[in-house]
Fold:
Amino acid sequence: MTNTRTVQSVGPYARGAGRFALIVGIAMILLWAWLLITDDVPDLDTRPLAMWFHIVGEVATGIVLIASGWGLLTGTVWARRLYLVAIGMLLLAVTHAIAWYGGRGEFWMVVAMVMLAVLGVFFAIRAEE
Structure:
């Protein structure tokens, strides 16, 4: 017999992970929208193809974070697996951001990115409870 359940109970850490994913996903998309609208993406002029791939990757990360966050909050059975994929995508984006901000000497942005990574991993581990 197959499991046809589409909704499961949502624990407090899964709700926290869902909120975290929604907030970070929305923030990522809004940040890139703001940077593009204000024409504040300096690498877009010097390396347009690489920069567009980077922007598309980060927007995709935001979309997957939003989808997994929504899924976790509504208790869908696929959400926990998608959340792990989303956190993996976020860790890749954060690793790139740490290198970029570190190279520019922006210490506090590096600290913020490390905290973002730590929170993502924390919720990924605890979301199973």
Q: What stands out?
A: The two ends are 26 Å apart (CA to CA). The chain has one domain: 12-36+44-126.
